[in-house]
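Batch manifest line 336
LIGAND: adenosine-5'-diphosphate
JOB: complex structure
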Amino acid sequence: MSGAYLIDMAIFGGVLWVLVPELLKKWGVPQDWGFVVFGLLGIQALTSGSNLGEGIRGIFRARTKKRKEAESALIAGDVGTSVLDVFAVPEAAEPVPADAPPVLEVSGLGVQFGALKALDDVSLRVRPRSIMGLIGPNGAGKSTFVDAVSGFLPQHTGKVLLEGEDITRKTPAARARHGLRRTFQQDRVPPQLTVESYVRFVTRTRIDYDELSDALTFLGCPSPEERLSNVDVGTRRLIEVAAAVLAGPKVLILDEPAAGLSHEEHLLFGQRLSRIPSRFNTAIVIIEHDLDLVRTVCTEITVLDFGRVLAQGPQQEVLDNPAVIAAYMGDAEMSS
Ligand code: ADP
Ligand code: MG
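JOB STATUS: finished
ARTIFACT:
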């Protein structure tokens, strides 16, 4: 009722639980009235789908928003921020030197499910602020690769180095803290949260409201106040990407992030994605079916087939590789 995922409200809820009966006792009111107080809070939570913490935050936000709007209207006339303004934010990054060490280095990765070798001796290196495409037919082992690298399959063999540090034996949470983040092929956002509380829950760091709001706009996500239950699946996946980006990872692995989007949204997503590395100083590994998107955003490509690396290297080289054309696609999409 108070909003247990908000740390202050969890504490407040606990205090309330103790304080209400104590106060009633002190005032000589029968203790049963305590149930009425909690009952009323319960009705508020159930009917609004919200809670006390979000309610108070909502009032506070609306006020700051109004004040800020008034201020900016005074300063610059009444010009609202458009998506283009967000795109125009200067990018601070200098180019990555050619001999820079890889930020993620995976070597000899193997995963076995019973008799099935889902991954067999898979190695790859991801350069800082680069975007690597991980492609391959269904069942090739792409999601298994993400699970193994992010620590969800501790039985894997091989090594995972993040900025030269061996993280092979670390838990998923420890890997995330070290700067390796991933999203899932199926969206995992809890629908009862607002966009903002979800992002804060994922990032676990202090983020300025404006920074959060800018990043959401940048990635084409709804406003921070929107409830996730009102958001369609494709957009939820974008919010997952935004939250992961705001966590400030060194490497971000995205498992088919654009799967739920329309064709136009898909193209726009590609444009936005290609600007993430320099804007947020992170490297990206993306699993993606749409080869047009892969062509426009990925500098390097790794092709998986039956758990093995079929081809690897600069984008054009890989897409022109006869083995890739023959074994993987060899269809109209590829020859276009
Ligand atoms: P992709 O993401 O490339 O479509 P996956 O990594 O999901 O492929 O799957 C690779 C292979 O491993 C498939 O043959 C799949 O059936 C199998 N597989 C994936 N996860 C498991 C599991 N938990 N147990 C058994 N087999 C699995
Ligand atoms: Mg998959």
